[in-house]
């Protein structure tokens, strides 16, 4: 019944979403830079402002029905970033965790494609309730692999930009880049990877939920 009422080819943007999370992630770093500047380049004050803003933002999201786990993870990332900057005494090191996490994400996505478990497929499959059944479809597996390269490029772009700015100690520009390369880049990545995904599928292919039909036939009760 669900498959009959669901459009054959859903938008990847509708499935992944993520705009609110990407926007929220860029606010504490901006607060850090503002607090750092206003207080005469005090890392302690900048870190404190970033943490307070992250706590207030997380509380707002929980009240609005957001997932507590996601809020805790986001808050933990801000606290760790602040501790790193406080420990090293370098304001630019507030962005070091973000630089390293993007490098790790680029490596994970690339490795997943090489071993034929493209992470984009894993993520979308989980969101659609397909688990790993999508891998039974060679066309879908190939399409997810091509589309996952777009995500690799996204992370590599961040690594290059953040890395150069971090190396140069450009704290203010890092804050700006952190904002520009959050939601706008995520939106572009989802749109482009969605285009690549569907462009890689045969014209007659029903879309992302194809792998769900054989599973439904094999297990009528699931």
UniProtKB/TrEMBL annotation:
Write down the Pfam families for this protein, in alphabetical order.
DUF3159
Write down what this protein is called: Intracellular septation protein A
Please provide the record's keywords in A-Z order: Membrane, Transmembrane, Transmembrane helix
| Superkingdom, taxonomy of origin | Bacteria
KW Acetylation (keyword) present: no
Instruction: Tell me which InterPro entries the record gives.
Output: UCP010219
Q: Tell me the lineage of the source organism.
A: Bacteria, Bacillati, Actinomycetota, Actinomycetes, Pseudonocardiales
Q: Which residues cross the membrane?
A: 43-63, 70-87, 107-128, 149-168, 180-198
